[in-house]
Amino acid sequence: MSQFSTKTKINGGIEKLSYYATVPEDPPFGLNAYRFKDAAEVVLELARCERYFKEIIQTKDGAGYSYSVIYWKRAEAIRPWLKRVERQLPATIRLTDIVIDSGCFWPWLNNVFDARARGLVELPEMFKPVAKIAA
Question: How many whole angstroms separate alpha carbon 52 and alpha carbon 15?
């Protein structure tokens, strides 16, 4: 059985692999948009406070939906963060509503949505946002 390298070459050097969690900026169908936006801000702030937090990048998928992708230096940082997030969420928002995807950002992926496009991860229809928040 082959093993994947956990390091990737960046500009001639070697950088450790990143891990990620994806937070939608728009709420799934049926959730209060303003309450969801407030909860998403708390989720992102909790990530910034974690020890192995790397960065947050705002991006859009192929359908034009906006997401915040949180990158981590170590995979083991995600689980305790998820527990903290779950304790901070209002009763009307589930953890799976606000953190829809997490995993390893392998070097052959162009972006976190590439995994879905290749069929490695599938985002269920019920988690796709349908309401846009007015800026």
Answer: 15
Please answer whether residues 99 and 42 qualify as being in contact, where contact means their C-beta atoms are separated by less than 8 angstroms: no
Contact of 44 with 38, CB cutoff 8 Å: no
Could you give the CA distance from residue 43 to residue 21 in angstroms, rounded to a whole number? 11
Annotated domain spans of the chain: 16-123
Over residues 85-123, the pLDDT tens digits come to 999 999 999 999 999 888 777 655 566 566 555 554 444
Output the six-digit token pair for 28.
């799934």
Q: Where does 16-123 sit in CATH, by number?
A: 3.30.70.100
Please give the structure tokens belonging to residue 75.
């995979």
Neighbour count for residue 116 (Cβ, 10 Å): 16
